[in-house]
């Protein structure tokens, strides 16, 4: 996860950083599959939990099938292959066996890139709640470092030597990414996670009076990170990032609103977040308002993204039902691009609408995968966003995960954040957070299902657990013992006398239960 966030900021495949991530992901994927142990659940819930796993397997299988060589009689009959056939005939070359994909090398690279998010998702499914929290803190730590790096990049400008990619927004803050839009995506995802941890620090501050200075510092750090993330969002100048950051702010208020009122103390989490938003808005207006307004001066309808989307949709419809092959957009788009939409000295490497590009590449299978995934996401969203009378950090993280997945899908309508290893890892983490953690074999068979998180039970003193000394009262405190705490045999002892209030007073140890007397002899 850490490596993906640090070196997975490029969207172009077959870079050295991609190879490193894939080599790291292969053993993780093998280990996650070897130790796969889904959480016990009812039959209906079990199928719901298996949906993302099955969709991931379907995506990998379809992509692999696109690389299987087909005889000329089959592949030349597929839609959109006329240009390839004409090229071979013009060259006087006999039609060879070809796979379904029009760009097999790109499809192969895309298949390998799936290893990174797949390994993270399947591994997160095997982690317990505490380990999942640790991963969210890693995302926040990298996001905080990205803020510092991004502000430094703006300060040094295009002449600075702190940019990691040749093809990048040289005058903008990009952090560890090559593109400011993907940097902005990390910022609004981390903002939602920081809002959850700010709420947790607030809850700890209310609940633990003796350690309040520590939790005051923790709450201040979380709020400061939220302000920094919003300020960095304005410095990145991504139009989609700014709009989705506003949606993330509304989502953070919704997270605070879901906190039970009886646990919010005198100052509610909603009021704290509203103050943070006000401070961040003032800072953004003070330092980056002019740069932001420059980004919105041009008419968005004149943006080339509109032409990209129109051509991609028309091409995807022509290539139904099998598509052109995952990762084949760049090789295929120029064939169908209209002359009036050509940009001087520029070529389209992405459709800037990842959902349409996914449809072009996988055809009918893309529509099925997206529809099934959105249905699963809606079911999980309804389950985790139900109001509860108890506060739980894990429930808040799951709610934030729903928002993160939804925002990344919205961002994919105007860009391609999930084509980067870093944001694909964040997306996989969010999906993994929505999966119930597995339970060990020592869990009680009659315990409630782990499909929904609950607050941790309060520790209780046990009187008969194996390997522990039985609980007993000290001799000077045995004068008053409630009858409800004693076995029925002890309540009928001849040495007990009623005090008229429903309790029994014990005058000598002879009236104690046998296990209590044994413990007293041991002491």
Uncertain segments: 441-508, 519-523
Total number of β-strand segments? 3
Structural class per helix/strand content?
mainly alpha
Task: Please work out how many helical segments DSSP would assign.
Answer: 20
Give the helices and strands as they follow along the chain.
HHHHHHHHHHHHHHHHHHEHEEH
Radius of gyration, CA atoms, in whole angstroms: 30 Å
Number of domains: 2
Overall mean pLDDT: 78
Description:
This protein is mostly helical. The protein folds into 2 domains: 2-66 and 101-433, no CATH class; 475-522, no CATH class. The protein has 20 helices and 3 strands. It has helices at residues 2-7, 16-34, 43-65, 72-75, 82-90, 104-113, 115-125, 129-156, 180-207, 212-236, 239-257, 269-295, 304-318, 329-336, 354-362, 364-384, 393-411, 421-433, 488-491, 514-522; strands at residues 480-481, 496-498, 504-506. The chain has a 3-stranded antiparallel sheet with strand order 1-3-2, with no helix packed on it. Strand 2 and strand 3 (504-506) form a beta hairpin. The protein starts with a helix and ends with a helix. Mean pLDDT is 78; it is low at 441-508 and 519-523.
């Amino acid at each position: 996860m850490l490596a993906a966030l640090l070196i997975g900021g490029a969207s172009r495949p077959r870079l050295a950083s991609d190879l490193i991530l894939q080599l790291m992901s292969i053993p993780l994927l093998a280990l996650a599959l070897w130790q796969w142990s889904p959480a016990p659940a009812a039959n209906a819930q079990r199928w719901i939990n298996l949906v993302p796993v099955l969709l991931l397997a379907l995506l990998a299988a379809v992509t692999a099938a696109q690389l299987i060589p087909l005889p000329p009689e089959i592949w030349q009959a597929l839609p959109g292959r006329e240009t390839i056939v004409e090229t071979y005939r013009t060259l006087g070359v006999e039609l060879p066996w070809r796979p379904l994909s029009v760009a097999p090398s790109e499809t192969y690279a895309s298949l390998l890139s799936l290893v990174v998010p797949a390994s993270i998702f399947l591994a997160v499914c095997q982690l317990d709640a505490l380990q999942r929290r640790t991963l969210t803190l890693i995302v926040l730590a990298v996001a905080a470092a990205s803020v510092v790096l991004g502000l430094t990049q703006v300060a040094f400008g295009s002449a600075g030597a702190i940019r990691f990619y040749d093809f990048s927004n040289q005058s903008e803050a990009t952090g560890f990414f090559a593109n400011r839009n993907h940097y902005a995506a990390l910022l609004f995802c981390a903002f939602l996670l920081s809002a959850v941890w700010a709420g947790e620090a607030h809850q700890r501050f209310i609940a633990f009076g003796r350690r309040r200075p520590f939790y005051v510092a923790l709450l201040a750090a979380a709020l400061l990170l939220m302000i920094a993330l919003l300020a960095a969002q304005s410095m990145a100048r991504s139009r989609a990032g700014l709009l989705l950051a506003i949606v993330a702010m509304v989502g953070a208020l919704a997270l605070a609103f879901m906190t039970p009122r009886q646990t919010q103390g005198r100052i509610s989490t909603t009021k704290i977040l509203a103050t943070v938003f006000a401070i961040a808005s003032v800072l953004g207006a003070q330092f980056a308002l002019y740069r932001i307004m420059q980004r919105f001066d041009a008419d968005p309808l004149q943006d080339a993204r509109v032409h990209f989307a129109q051509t991609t949709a028309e091409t995807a419809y022509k290539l139904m039902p099998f598509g052109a092959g995952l990762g084949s957009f760049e090789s295929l788009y120029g064939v169908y691009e209209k002359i009036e939409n050509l940009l001087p000295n520029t070529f389209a490497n992405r459709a800037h609408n990842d959902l349409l590009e996914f449809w072009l590449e996988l055809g009918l299978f893309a529509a099925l995968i997206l529809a099934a995934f959105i249905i699963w996401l809606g079911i999980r969203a309804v389950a985790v966003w139900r109001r509860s009378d108890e506060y739980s950090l894990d429930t808040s993280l799951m709610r934030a995960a729903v928002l993160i997945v939804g925002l990344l899908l919205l961002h994919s309508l105007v860009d391609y954040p999930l084509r980067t290893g870093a944001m694909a890892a964040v997306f996989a983490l969010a999906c993994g957070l929505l999966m119930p953690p597995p339970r060990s074999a020592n869990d009680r068979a009659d315990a409630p299902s782990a499909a929904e998180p609950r607050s941790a039970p309060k520790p209780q003193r046990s009187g008969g657990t194996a390997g522990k000394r039985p609980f007993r009262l000290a001799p000077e405190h045995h004068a008053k013992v409630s009858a409800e705490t004693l076995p029925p045999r002890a309540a009928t002892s001849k040495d007990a006398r009623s005090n008229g209030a429903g309790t029994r007073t014990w005058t000598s140890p002879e009236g104690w239960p046998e296990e209590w007397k044994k413990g007293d002899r041991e002491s």
